[in-house]
Amino acid sequence: MPDPLSFASGISAAGALVSVWQLRRRALRAEAEIAYLQAELAAERHAASHDPLTGLPNRRAFHRIAAALLTDAGGQPLIAVVLDLNDFKQVNDRYGHAAGDQVLISVAQRLTAFAGDNLVARLGGDEFAGLLRTPSVDRRWIDHATRRLCEAMAAPISLAGCSVRVTASVGLAPVTGPTQLTEALCAADAAMYRAKGVTGRRAPRQLVDAPRLAEC
Length: 216
Known about the structure:
By secondary structure, this protein is an alpha+beta fold. It has six helices and seven strands; from the N terminus they run ααβααββαβββαβ. A hairpin with a 2-residue loop joins β4 and β5 (about 160-165).
């Protein structure tokens, strides 16, 4: 006959194993729930700070990240960039809002490629901004950077079997210190609007205004 004590001991050991297994299952379930909640929180934070269409930081995130970058710049020259598309409304009017969204996505991708690992953002509508580390902030460098950026924006964009050419007006301004971001953005914005208003004559050196939208 089985030893009653051994039998009871075996039952106790089996019960202990079941308890350990149940606790392990609960722990794994809790870990999965925590990971899910953390992912949800990260997604909510990302959605609150990024433009849902282009994936770029939004206006609020741009100012927050830019302030941190300016604090840690270590004296390296920085340029504020403001970019606005010319006659963007024509895209929506002629080809629909889906085409307009694709244009904005393409512009965001081109601006990101131009800026490299620097900060760029969509401020709203067809307005974008950036904060670029630069080797220099002299007029020649600003002129060269503005031309390159406008040329990148003016390349044709494919839309459902045709292509459009959307040009941009760009303003650049040096950021002279950690507390000067607002002033630099205002100066870049003013330069951008002066560029947008240049017609029938050559723009000033740091302002480039490209031709209007070309149809498919």
